[in-house]
Write a structure and sequence with these properties.
The protein contains no helices and four strands. By secondary structure, it is mostly beta strands. The protein has a domain of about 40 residues. Strand 2 and strand 3 form a beta hairpin. The chain is globular, with a radius of gyration of 15 Å.
């Protein structure tokens, strides 16, 4: 049975490192689109709220960073 999912490239953005984990949503139709990822050798989760419609990422988005280290420092 063929996969019913279809992927369409909507936006591009550059990472500062090598992405390891990636998840995107929304889980609910009422939520904004978002993307979260981690990079190899980094202790932070990067979180991006994606702009609506055909707006290109890079024009109107912000990467928010959350420290995943339980000690709160920068050691990986």
């Amino acid at each position: 049975m063929p996969c019913p999912l279809r992927w369409v490239l909507r936006r591009n953005f550059e990472c500062s490192g090598n992405p390891e984990g990636l998840v995107f949503g929304p889980l609910d139709a009422d939520e904004e689109a978002w993307l979260a990822y981690t990079e190899r050798g980094d202790h932070q989760l990067k979180y991006i709220m994606l702009p609506e419609g055909g707006q290109e990422v890079g024009v109107d988005y912000e990467i928010r960073k959350f420290n995943l280290n339980p000690n709160g420092d920068a050691w990986v």
